[in-house]
């Protein structure tokens, strides 16, 4: 499969966390014993209409394309012991490929990988890696930047909002990219972010959406999975941006676009490699992006003006070609400090450790 | 013609009869639960393997069950010690979280040098006792219902837990709301059998001490008396207040210790999921053990077995984990009903009621 760029900070993480296991291990193919027996572990229900469903769609693609039958388990808490117990149950009955699906599994999956050195692990949005474990994610901020452009161009009040889960790097970059994209077409736009500190809380998400609307926000980006924010926005006649899957069904009128995953682009080649014994987990984790097709946006709504549509398409092409970077300097944080100076690009370590919000964003990291 | 229904306490319901009723009810409860499982789509042929072999007979499965039962024993003690005095502790989770928080604080702030681990356990007990103290005092001084106070104290404890996990305790490595992993000196020893750890010894010692105190010591007699009739106990010169407070604080301390045992024995870090459902589990186990500490380990093992089986039913048959709660509920209901019938006689009195 494609050699993905390396992550310096994750190297440190991997080194410090997996010390003793991955030490001085050269990059090598990892082979499982016998035919792959694959299990997916989800933190919520698989058909959650968002994050897990995007992965579950990829699971079905893998089944169809590689002829594998995959076991699944749902609602395993993002807790080391809970995950390890689920893994133990699977490995105890001969499963040798575990696909975990959550950032919160990062530590647990590393411990499980150490305990089962003959089993292959991959973890979606996971921050840990080992000789038999590869975390994978995709550059979602690229899609959110494009969605931000659409939001900035269609907001009449000049206020847009984004509802997000936990204030961690992989989420903060979406928030910041959304704001930067909007600012690219409307420099005065104000972006309000609210973190719900949960990945799945439809009631809270709906309430937050309503609070944002009450404050005059007229475009809502939903970085989470539930339909509640779309329904609230639709009722108020506001626009909305979805994430993970095409969310247009929840907001037929106001849906601008959705930033969507295409995990099959990663999982099919990865599991095929496991099947034929050529899997080489990257010790830095897999980190593809729009160029590899693992993330993209759905067709833009007609509410987006034609010239902005053209601008968005142009930017998308530039991102894929590598000639445009979302976090190219100068990037200025909320408090005015320059985080990325002119002429530099935030590296992957900086992305994963992103603990700032950019200028023009209203809200705090908690 | 009206009928009146009266309940009469059976005189001298024999021990044999009580034991038989208990066993019969347990069997009936289990049978009903199995029927629910089969209805939910678990093949009949797999039941024995999933519920008995994988849970109690295979070494790895039994290790999982024992590990899970360890904090449950302490949670059940937290319920039983209080219930003996008719004090309904509905806030076991809150006390458990405080215990987990205190133990974690000792670990994270490197307190206690070579005595780190014992200090963590003491801190856990102190945290749990501290958290139940307001409910005890409010009950004793103002007659405020402990059901409300202990329950609401749990909500406060959870917010405190979240505050710490999103703030000072947050692991900077992942920025996810869990504490950093404990060091080796802060972990309870494992015995090389699954995740079974030193917490089991602590739990069994606690159970033994509670059984001894309640069964052999003057305190146990006083506790039963105070629980049954506090006014009479006071009138007869029993230190009712002291006995009540001591029992409640001991209950809180056991819940706190459960939190300490979870973070230092299995999780090795503080998370938001520590000890979930412990209030319900603790009360169910205490009720099934009829608040007798000596029976708690066995019942805890049984309930833990249900959870472990539930986990594999979920993994391999897609049965929701809720099924475990349903099974627990069914067994408890049947047992409570049976207990009622053995204790009371229902009598229909026909006659004219003025």
TrEMBL record, chain B:
Entry-linked InterPro entries: ABC_transp_permease
Membrane topology: Multi-pass membrane protein
Keywords: Cell membrane, Membrane, Transmembrane, Transmembrane helix
Taxonomic superkingdom: Bacteria
Transmembrane segments: 20-42, 62-83, 90-109, 115-133, 140-161, 196-215, 243-264, 270-288, 295-317, 323-341
Localization per record: Cell membrane
Pfam families: BPD_transp_2
Molecular function terms from GO: transmembrane transporter activity
A GO CC term assigned to this protein in UniProt: plasma membrane
Protein name: ABC transporter permease
Organism: Marinibacterium profundimaris
